[in-house]
Amino acid sequence: MSALDRLASALGRRDEVPNVELAEALAASRDEEGVQELVDALASGPAPVSADAIKVLYELGTRDPSLIAPYAAEFAALLSGRNNRLIWGATTALHEASKASPQAVAPHLRVLMDAVAHGSVITADRGIGAIANAAMGDEAAIDFVLDHLQTCGAKYVPLRAEHALPAVTTANAPRFLKALQARLAEQSAGGRARLKRLIRTIESKAVE
Fold it and tell me: What domains sit in the chain, N to C, each tagged with a CATH number?
């Protein structure tokens, strides 16, 4: 049975269980042919198939990001489309891929920044992580992340700041500290605690 035949839509299911099970099976078997089949369906498959395929791929990314990293360009191509499900799914996949191969995601920083600036909450959550992982000294990308942390809604700051941590270096740590300290007063008790933990972590980087 092909990977497409195991998708929830192919099985007449409305839940995500078959898609998650397929991701687990692909990770266990390292089935590169099955992964390729799903990637091909992103651009050419009917909407239900594409939606299931991106779900499987980003779930696979959480289990073995190296299996989806070679397809960063295919995921990035979806960010310019109009299907929000595919946009935030592709951003999530890029976030996972960037953990294994920042260099594969780095060529797509500009389209990622545009997606974060104009996309949904999930797109921004995951996109900031992908940008931070793949920035690798790209000052425009670092500036974008810092500006986002200073201007996004208060309730989103803790998670996005956590995702941004890989972009922090000894050189730019003071800028991150300033950005996060300025958002402390807006936070709930839980958010403030999360930011304070991050601030302590960044302070340690500043003196490395």
Answer: 1-134 (1.25.10.10), 140-208 (no CATH)
